[in-house]
Amino acid sequence: MTPQRVVLVLIIFCLGWLYWDDIQNRRNAHECKRDEGALYVGETCYLSNEWGTLFRLYDGKTGELLAERQYLTPEPREPIWEPTHVIYDVGSNDGFVRLPPTWWDRLWAKLP
Predict the structure, then answer these.
(1) Strand order in the sheet with 80-81
(2) In angstroms, rounded to a whole number, what is the distance separating the alpha carbons of residues 71 and 62?
């Protein structure tokens, strides 16, 4: 095996392990709080890593997961609902999900 292939295999292995670890972290989310709305439902959960927080956006009628975000905060707050987006992290410029969620959000929400 050439050195380039060894490096490629190591990179693929490391990325796979990081993704598996991320799946386990999201699977172990706890102390979830739901904010029920008419069209959408927001859910904020604690993650096992320090200050880790998970925000999930569901369809209000079907319960389908539409978007999922992880962020770091010691004290998560309730989401702020606006007509065009929901803010889940007020301390960040990108701490929001557009309403309706983009196709990219929907695609990522389908992955484990």
Answers:
(1) 80-81, 85-87, 96-98
(2) 26
pTM, rounded to two decimals: 0.82
Is 40 in contact with 82 (CB distance < 8 Å)? no
The CATH number of the structural domain formed by 29-110 is 2.40.10
Q: What would the two tokens of residue 39 be?
A: 């069209």
Asked whether the bond before 83 is cis by omega within 30 degrees of 0, the reply is: no
Q: Amino acid identity, residue 63?
A: G
Report domain extents, the chain: 29-110
Q: Name the CA radius of gyration of the chain, rounded.
A: 17
Structure confidence by residue, pLDDT tens digits, 41-91: 999 999 887 678 999 999 999 999 999 998 988 788 889 999 999 999 988
Length of the chain: 112
